[in-house]
Write a structure and sequence with these properties.
69 residues, 74% helix, binds zinc ion
């Protein structure tokens, strides 16, 4: 299973705030860095507000981890 698939499996739990904070942080960091997963999560519906936050988070991470994967 790819990391993307693992994160996508956590989508429902994340939307329900059922992930623990470490898992949620890892997921949100992945979403900020992975447009493909962001599209999947966005297509699920309830993400408008979070996606806006993630766009800001993505900018911060891009600065912080430039050159890293
Ligand atoms: Zn992904």
């Amino acid at each position: 299973m790819t990391p993307c698939e693992q994160y996508r499996n956590q989508l429902d739990a994340w939307l329900d705030d059922e992930l623990d904070s470490a898992d949620a942080a890892a997921l949100e960091k992945h979403l900020a860095a992975c447009p493909a997963c962001r599209d999947v999560f966005q297509s699920h519906g309830a993400l408008a507000g979070r996606i806006t936050e993630l766009a800001e988070l993505s900018n911060r991470i891009a600065v912080k981890t430039a050159g890293a994967d």
